[in-house]
Task: structure prediction
Amino acid sequence: MKDSNQVLAQVADFTCTGFDDAGEALDALLRVVQEILDFDTVLISEISRASSQLRVHAVNNTHPGMTVPQGLQIPLTASPCQHVASSVAPFTHGDMHADAELALLPAAKDMGATSYVGVPVVLADGSFFGTLVGLDLASKESTAEQLAWMRVMARLAALELQRQDARQLA
Result:
């Protein structure tokens, strides 16, 4: 992770940039999150608790060894995001392969992800949208500072998602 001043500058640049659409803004946001975490893949998922489904809403893949496709839809129980969705709290694991339950999930078993960090994306009205996630092939523990920045970025993601919805309704 870059030092705090560099991260602050990147977040400030992001918040001061006028984007033409929310998709462009979410792509830029994910690039900032990738810099914060230095993880191979970062994504925003949309989670339906009612149908227990997860859909990848936006993704930034930086390592050819692990590529998560945008639009991928899987049962929520097949993702570590189920822990974030059930508690609406951050969930991290530095080595999913060392945990019997997590090792069986497709992210670890099929995609080879070892590290996971996820924070909830909660909209302004308090409704749960999904997760802001980092996945990495290597074993990495997330720091308290990274989690704090992830929570900030999840709030910014929520604003962009709401802006996207507002434009679609107009």
